[in-house]
Design a protein that fits this description.
With about 270 residues, the protein is of the alpha/beta class. The protein is built from seven helices and twelve strands. The protein has a six-stranded mixed beta sheet with strand order 8-7-9-10-11-12, sandwiched between helices. A four-stranded mixed beta sheet has the order 4-3-6-5. Strands 1-2 form a two-stranded antiparallel sheet. A hairpin with a 4-residue loop joins strand 7 and strand 8. Helix 1 packs across helix 5 (about 185-200) and helix 6 (about 220-225) runs parallel beside helix 7 (about 240-250). It is flat, with a radius of gyration of 19 Å.
């Protein structure tokens, strides 16, 4: 068994005939974030890149502005199951960070399908970015954008086995793959990707674009805006709030990217 997949017996029914076989399933497990000794949130995620996920979560939620504000961070096994690893990420911020964990604490867990679950106030849904979006910068050729889904699929190794993961990838304006993360939650994949960039010291990401394998929901646009990514492309549809936020912060938003076709919902000046 791999850490990210497991096999399970299944019965396949095809044209009235039944057969037995083994199938690969992606692993989904809870991960708790504890901040300065207090429980902060629980997210359902695919195991792996947990420190990237925690870093990205803290940043895209507006809790930190830079990775240097983290004093320590470690993965700990679940206390009731010593054989597991990474079920809790314990984070300590530097003393000068005057953070009230109760301000950010979520009353419920974050499911794999929802990046804003558990927030109890409407004003907590939208987080203001600390890094402004560059309104000048690279142009992204349409021919490059056409090729992105194919480039993404070539690197989705766990998806090939399970068919059960979302993916988020960073590309340069020249089409070079800068980073890829897969997860059962699309928002987790984006947090892992941004968290990795933060830990590598490459944020803000004003010369790159992000591609997500599913729809473009509000939370994905907001997280990308926080990292000052100028273009988000999605294979699926955007939501009305995603378009509104993209326009407000000057992000280029592309949806329905399939084959030689896509729609531009905001910021068409970056695409030529």
């Amino acid at each position: 068994m791999n850490r990210d997949t497991i096999t399970a017996p299944v019965q396949t029914v095809e044209k009235g005939l039944s057969s037995s076989r083994s199938d690969w399933l992606v692993i989904e497990e809870p991960l708790q974030f504890c901040l300065n000794g207090f429980p902060l949130a629980i997210t359902m995620r695919s195991p792996g890149s947990d420190l990237d996920l925690a870093t990205g979560f803290l940043f895209t939620e507006g809790i930190i502005d830079d990775v240097s504000q983290i004093l320590s961070m470690r993965c700990e096994p679940a206390k009731d199951s010593p054989g597991k690893s990474g079920d809790t990420v314990t984070i300590r911020l530097k003393p000068e960070m005057a953070i009230d964990p109760a301000r950010f604490r979520r009353n419920f867990y974050t499911s794999s399908s929802c990046g804003v679950c558990g927030k109890i106030a409407m004003g907590a849904i939208e987080v203001r970015p600390s890094r402004p979006m560059r309104q000048s910068g690279p142009q992204f050729p349409a021919d490059l954008i056409y090729r992105l889904p194919g480039l993404l699929r070539e690197t989705q190794h766990v998806f090939d086995r399970t068919g059960g993961l979302h993916a988020a990838a960073l590309f340069s304006a020249e089409g070079t793959l800068l980073g890829l993360r897969e997860d059962v939650g699309r928002h987790n994949a984006v947090d892992k990707l941004i968290g990795c960039a933060l830990r590598d010291g490459t944020v803000p990401l004003g010369d790159s674009l992000i591609l997500v394998s599913g729809r473009a929901g509000f939370e994905l646009v907001q997280k990308s805006v926080m990292a000052a990514i100028p273009l988000l492309a999605a294979v699926g549809a955007p939501s009305s709030l995603a378009v509104e936020v993209a326009k407000r912060f000057g992000m280029t938003l592309v949806g329905f990217l399939r084959g030689q076709r896509f729609n531009i919902y905001s910021g068409d000046g970056r695409i030529d």
